[in-house]
């Protein structure tokens, strides 16, 4: 697009008023500059995804659930604004502390971690979690859930999370405090892109040593993810941070195009909130425009917005704006459609080849 002209919008001289709401604030952001403008435009793009009935994926990296943001994910799920999720295992694991009433406390970042270790306190920046009272208790819960479940046949991480969500809804102390439980209720598939790199996988080790076999069918879930995108009228991603969840959702385009030869073209919309720099060559900082060269996005010139900001600040603003502006959508309930989508993609591929 040609931006080499002087035909842009005038920038107002903003004034804040006591009776302004989140919609007013986002309008100010969108009419300003720098990352405030990017955040304002991202909020409007999220609304566009909803209005155009896009299938929306939320990717979650970083430690978002230990600071309670799983409740925001849950609000978006319940209103039909998130249709499938790719998360780190840690965000799923720590979310369940709230459902099961296991303590997570505000602490401090300027501390002696040698002392915290002696006091059985685990630290995530300025968040404290008890070792025995929280982590070990959560480990037992996960092990009890998995005992005699998911054994003797390969499973996907979506099946793992669906079981965890059902278990949380039926047995936890606070079943309404879990986005995993909400995902189960609304048939939102949750994929853990790095299951073995989390406590959820570590919890399976004692069961394995007692001769219970656990095997993740990672190829099946990659196909399911591509099938979701292939069967969507339009497809978009909200990316919190980057990392493996970002690439897991974005690689659906190259799989459909490069590997399967189905000529899909990638995502219609992507919003990323990140603090990672692009010049280091890492995936987390890679621009969404760069993704076009891989076939990860349909268009590198529009409907791809990166907000360089702390996600703990920017994501709640983005979410509250769409929750305020958009009416709830009917849930797409993709989890129940995965087998159908998978089989149909297989038929199309085999017919073509």
Question: Short summary of the structure?
Answer:
With 353 residues, the protein is an alpha/beta fold. It contains 15 helices and nine strands. The protein starts with 21 loop residues before the first helix and ends with a helix.
Report on this structure.
This protein is α/β, with parallel strands linked by helices and 353 residues long. The protein has helices at 22-30, 34-51, 70-78, 89-99, 113-118, 131-146, 157-171, 179-185, 199-202, 205-209, 218-230, 243-250, 252-259, 311-325, 338-352; strands at 55-60, 84-87, 104-106, 121-124, 127-130, 190-192, 235-240, 269-274, 304-308. It has 15 helices and nine strands. The protein has a single domain (37-102, 132-352), classed as Deoxyhypusine synthase (Deoxyhypusine Synthase), CATH 3.40.910.
H and E string = HHEHEHEHEEHHHEHHHEHHEEHH
Q: Please outline the major beta sheet.
A: 6 strands, parallel
Computed over alpha carbons, the radius of gyration is 21 Å
β-strand amount: 5-15%
Q: Keywords for this structure?
A:
globular, Deoxyhypusine Synthase, alpha/beta, single chain, three-stranded antiparallel β-sheet, 353 residues, six-stranded parallel β-sheet
Write the layout of secondary structure elements.
Elements: H1 22-30, H2 34-51, E1 55-60, H3 70-78, E2 84-87, H4 89-99, E3 104-106, H5 113-118, E4 121-124, E5 127-130, H6 131-146, H7 157-171, H8 179-185, E6 190-192, H9 199-202, H10 205-209, H11 218-230, E7 235-240, H12 243-250, H13 252-259, E8 269-274, E9 304-308, H14 311-325, H15 338-352
Parallel strand pairs: 1-2, 1-7, 2-6, 7-8, 8-9
Antiparallel strand pairs: 3-5, 4-5
